[in-house]
Amino acid sequence: MRLIPRPALRRPFYGEFIVKPVKVGICGLGTVGGGTFNVLKRNAEEIARRAGRGIEVAQIAMRTPNPNCQITGTPTTTDVFDVASNPEIDIVIELIGGYTIARELVLKAIENGKHVVTANKALIAVHGNEIFAKAREKGVIVAFEAAVAGGIPVIKAIREGLSANRINWVAGIINGTGNFILTEMREKGRTFPDVLAEAQALGYAEADPTFDVEGIDAAHKLTILASIAFGIPLQFDKAYTEGITRLTTADVNYAEALGYRIKHLGVARSTPSGIELRVHPTLIPADRLIANVNGVMNAVMVNGDAAGSTLFYGAGAGMEPTASSVVADLVDVVRALTTDPENRVPHLAFQPDSLSAHPILPIDACESAYYLRIQAKDHPGVLAQVASILSERGINIESIMQKEVEEHDGLVPMILLTHRVVEKRMNDAIEALEALEDVAGPVVRIRVEHLN
Length: 452
Ligand SMILES: NC(=O)c1ccc[n+]([C@@H]2O[C@H](COP(=O)([O-])OP(=O)(O)OC[C@H]3O[C@@H](n4cnc5c(N)ncnc54)[C@H](O)[C@@H]3O)[C@@H](O)[C@H]2O)c1
Ligand SMILES: N[C@@H](CCO)C(=O)O
Ligand code: NA
Description:
The chain has helices at about 30-40, 45-50, 80-85, 100-110, 120-140, 155-160, 175-190, 190-200, 210-215, 215-230, 250-255, 320-335, 380-390, 425-435; strands at about 20-25, 55-60, 75, 90-95, 115-120, 140-145, 165-175, 240, 260-270, 275-285, 295-305, 310-315, 365-375, 395-400, 410-420, 420, 440-450. By secondary structure, the protein is an alpha/beta fold. The strands form two sheets. Strands 7, 8, 9, 10, 11, 12, 13, 14, 15, 16 and 17 form an eleven-stranded mixed beta sheet that branches. Strands 3-2-1-4-5-6 form a six-stranded parallel beta sheet, sandwiched between helices. β4, α4 and β5 (about 115-120) form a beta-alpha-beta unit. The longest helix is centred in the N-terminal third of the chain and has 18 residues, at about 120-140. It is elongated. The termini are far apart. The site of nicotinamide-adenine-dinucleotide has 26 residues, from α1.
């Protein structure tokens, strides 16, 4: 056999590109800013080969040094607006977080004709409509892949990869901190505050961690996902949000015994009467892939009429996973610098003049199955009373689990799983259940999704 010698691999290198590098400015050198700086530096050659041009950090706006970054030689400032008005800079990377200065900074950068890359889901969910309108007027791109599910390229997947589909629903574990807390509590029996402190030390949590544990951060991300999935304007104020702080170990264990896992899930579903947009603890059958997404990992399921269900999995937070998305956006922007703004991928996936006015449904018009835990007195006939309250309202029981009498208070926990029902009807049933003589205290209700 004659071996044909392979031609020596041509090794392109950064300096070889004739075109000058694109100059970018980083605003905020914290967890994500530091990761972005380091990835741009470490993978400069790969990135330049992909983008067709090098990407040079020409300025950094920072308040304090980041011990993880060697920034020698890169000009710095303490004022982010210096970056937005720096004539050398083509792309402003907003990584300071928050809604106030970040909004002014992004609008100023756009005003000055600069493209923007941001990881700020709060900013996009709350001020995105204004920001995208301004960007369109100025013919610039605002890229935000890092804003949803950290390192998972899910914005790109929905906006481009699934563009043939009519999307039915999107469901995701989209807060790394919350999922890390739930996992550590379930697997290692650790306490909530202990795990939260670790998530903060690892750089996963928001500046205000109530955003993570009360579901606000997940609602920001779900708002963005719903817009690009259904072609609707961003409407964060209409999202329903319930946190994980009131979950008890008892419910986690009962769910487990019934074959379910409790996850903090964001669900956006398109129905004929409107769009459901809700974040809450949710029972998911334990044999589903998404029920087994643990720690800081995130996963987003998208159900489209042509593709069926697709699942996107990866790190939902952290320095370099998030930087991966920021840098991918930079590469996209660099490739699109010379393109006609009218022919670029629209910010919200659909052409801005084709957004739909399909309304967001209030939570009591949303539909799901339910887990109910009722603390009942150990009297004969309680179960019959419970069953008749539910059946009078057309709520079908799927299964019932009754535990032993709890010695200290003589109460018997009765756990029920129901079929799908509109929330308003369930609220009415719960009110009637709580009024029963033999039912003590509030009924615990957790929504159930089978994600079929
Ligand atoms: N940490 C993550 O895993 C992660 C993942 C995805 C998205 N995000 C988003 O990325 C953004 C940044 O998050 P982070 O975790 O890097 O936060 P961080 O607190 O680690 O970093 C923010 C940095 O910005 C600096 N800063 C704030 N205001 C400034 C100003 N006016 N001028 C100059 N510097 C300023 C702070 O000093 C800090 O160093 C947020 O919008 C966050 O929601 C974070
Ligand atoms: N605080 C967020 C960061 C990633 O968006 C989380 O924990 O998911
Ligand atoms: Na992403």
